């Protein structure tokens, strides 16, 4: 679905510098295991976007893959420009649930394998987050997992233009969480953006614009880890 606006051109009206970052001790592998095994009482900040269409809701899952290094990184994809849903946007690997999927975790694991070639043998699921309903009608279950280094990715060129990694520390620091807004058909829509400057394969600076549902789910992960 083509956007009616360019989110990168919208003004930033707030940045959450006043909120504390998730400390390093709470981002460790053992701390994450403990948090998912004994989750706190908390509520997601954002769960439902205003709908852009009237098609029937569809169940979906995404994998939030945390690469298990000394400093955890989050694997993200850049979707190809010709896709019907969220073309050209930064996303987690994932997609629509299929009848053969046993549950939301199965959907996330299957989609990650099909989309970026991530083998399940490298994936250790920590747990799931509350569902997030996108403006395009997908009811998404975010599945958070650790990924052991040594994996070899094989992105599907039809769906994935690029796979890249962002430090979890950057994403869990609200100083990097920007508020932007747009008015569409007389309705104001507010959303988070988390621009990240990484590097291309050749080492040149490369800008990645994380926003929308992906940024919202990362913001909810921040809320879960900082609760």
Summarize it.
By secondary structure, this protein is an alpha+beta fold. Helices cover 18% and strands 34% of the residues.
Q: Could you describe the 3D structure shown?
A:
- This protein is of the alpha+beta class.
- It has a domain at 25-167 and 212-226: Alpha-Beta Complex (Nucleoside Triphosphate Pyrophosphohydrolase), CATH 3.90.79.
- Helix content is 18%, strand content 34%.
- The strands form 2 sheets. Strands 2, 3, 4, 5, 6, 7, 8 and 9 form an 8-stranded mixed sheet that branches. The protein has a 4-stranded antiparallel sheet with strand order 1-10-11-12.
- Strand 11 and strand 12 (205-211) form a beta hairpin.
- The protein starts with 13 loop residues before the first strand and ends with a helix.
Judged by helices, strands and strand pairing, the structural class is: alpha+beta
CATH class (first level) name of the domain at 25-167 and 212-226 = Alpha Beta
Distance between the termini: 35 Å
> What is the approximate shape?
globular
Instruction: Please bin the fraction of helical residues.
Output: 10-25%
CATH topology of the domain at 25-167 and 212-226: Nucleoside Triphosphate Pyrophosphohydrolase
Q: What is the arithmetic mean of pLDDT?
A: 92
CATH architectural grouping of the domain at 25-167 and 212-226 = Alpha-Beta Complex
Residue windows where pLDDT falls under 50 for at least 5 positions: none
The SSE string, one letter per element, is EHEEEEHEEEEHEEEH
Question: How many helical elements?
Answer: 4
Major beta-sheet overview: 8 strands, mixed
Report the portion of residues in β strands. 25-35%
CATH superfamily of the domain at 25-167 and 212-226: Nucleoside Triphosphate Pyrophosphohydrolase
What is the C-alpha radius of gyration, as a whole number of Å?
17 Å
User: What is the number of beta strands?
Assistant: 12
């Amino acid at each position: 679905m083509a956007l009616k606006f360019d989110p990168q051109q919208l003004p930033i009206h707030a940045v959450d510098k006043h909120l504390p970052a998730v400390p390093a001790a709470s981002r460790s592998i053992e701390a994450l295991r403990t948090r998912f095994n004994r989750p706190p009482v908390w509520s997601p900040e954002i769960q439902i976007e205003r709908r852009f269409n009237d098609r029937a809701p569809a169940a979906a899952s995404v994998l939030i893959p945390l690469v298990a290094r000394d400093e955890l990184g989050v694997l993200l994809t850049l979707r190809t420009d010709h896709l019907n849903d969220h073309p050209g946007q930064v996303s987690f690997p994932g997609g629509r649930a299929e009848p053969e999927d046993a549950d939301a975790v199965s959907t996330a694991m299957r989609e990650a394998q099909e989309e970026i070639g991530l083998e399940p043998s490298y994936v250790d699921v920590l747990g799931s987050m509350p569902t997030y309903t996108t403006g395009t009608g997908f009811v998404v279950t975010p599945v958070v997992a650790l990924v052991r280094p040594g994996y070899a990715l094989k992105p599907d060129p039809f769906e994935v233009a690029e796979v890249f990694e962002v430090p979890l520390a950057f994403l869990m620091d609200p100083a990097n969480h920007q508020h932007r807004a747009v008015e569409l058909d007389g309705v104001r829509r507010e959303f988070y953006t988390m621009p990240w400057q990484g590097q291309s394969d050749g080492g040149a600076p490369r800008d990645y614009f994380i926003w929308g549902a992906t940024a919202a789910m990362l913001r909810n992960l921040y809320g879960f880890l900082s609760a």
